[in-house]
Write a structure and sequence with these properties.
Blueprint lengths: L1 H53 L4 H11 L16 H16 L30 E6 L6 E6 L1 E4 L6 E3 L6 E5 L2 E8 L2 E7 L2 E5 L4 E6 L2 E3 L5 H21 L2 H23 L1
Parallel strand pairs: 1-9
Antiparallel strand pairs: 1-2, 3-4, 3-6, 5-8, 6-7, 7-10, 8-9
Helix pairs in contact: 2-3, 4-5
Length: 267
């Protein structure tokens, strides 16, 4: 009897330790899952922004990736090769596969090239245009569409750069900062952009796609100062508490509000 009671007591203590250990392990797993979900969300947002802006240049990749989403079982992978017209051929191949697997009630997808303006053909003699053709896209409006401007200053993650006629083709990710558009010698407009992408084409056309943007003069200094103080305090609390997710979110807030504060200081 005593042996049995002792055994049960020992087993009970062991089970309690295992339970506590399992609880801590589950908490660590949830933390890892949250960080993985955050990284995955960021990757999807970046990929979505890139597909929206790149248009025809990424259609072969986008079509292949989209087709793989519809593959099930042992169905063959979507591997059509594009030859004469890569963009058009990939669209037609994708739609063919789409019609084979998509429900009959679902309309076929549209492509970015159906909505984007066609770029001009480069000059035959290789002459550099006198102006930059500028397109500025936002989710709720289009401040510039085919506008002829002298220069565009872009705040990029890799460093700020200016775009003038004849600039080399470039693709850059935007950071929180000021996008400056010099329309002519006496007219300059500044926008604060949160993030997005900028693309400079060989024909001196420049496309900027921002997640959000507002004229710098619309920023309220008091609100910016209060927001910077709030996120700075949140970052300190999250860092001391070991909460990586909240620390990452607070760090983003500090960076954005710091950039807005710097933009107001330069205004």
């Amino acid at each position: 009897f005593f042996f049995d009671c002792g055994a049960r007591f020992v087993v009970g203590k062991s089970d309690a330790r295992v339970a506590r250990g399992s609880g801590r392990e589950r908490e660590r797993e949830r933390g890892r899952d949250r960080m993985q979900a955050l990284r995955r969300l960021t990757q999807l947002q970046l990929a979505a922004g890139a597909r929206l802006c790149l248009g025809d240049a990424v259609k072969p990749l986008a079509a292949s990736s989209s087709a793989r989403l519809f593959q099930t079982g042992s169905a063959p992978r979507f591997e059509e090769e594009t030859k004469a017209n890569p963009s058009l051929a990939s669209q037609e191949a994708f739609l063919k596969k789409w019609n084979e697997v998509a429900p009959s009630t679902m309309d076929p997808p549209s492509f970015a090239s159906e909505f984007a303006a066609k770029s001009k053909e480069p000059a035959a003699d290789g002459a550099v245009p006198e102006k930059v053709t500028f397109n500025f896209f936002l989710p709720h409006e289009k401040p510039y569409s085919g506008a002829e401007v002298d220069m565009v200053l872009v705040p990029a993650v890799s460093g700020d750069f200016g775009v003038m006629p004849g600039h080399v083709p470039t693709a850059a990710q935007l950071r929180p900062g000021v996008l400056t558009v010099q329309e002519d010698e006496g007219t300059t407009k500044k926008f604060f952009v949160s993030s997005g992408f900028a693309f400079v084409h060989a024909d001196s056309t420049t496309d900027v796609c921002a997640v959000e943007a507002f004229p710098v003069e619309d920023l309220d200094p008091a609100t910016v100062e209060a927001g910077l103080a709030d996120y700075t305090a949140k970052l300190a609390t999250a860092t001391s508490g070991g909460d990586d997710y909240e620390a990452a979110a607070a760090q983003i807030g500090v960076e954005v509000y710091s950039a807005m504060n710097a933009a107001l200081a330069e205004k």
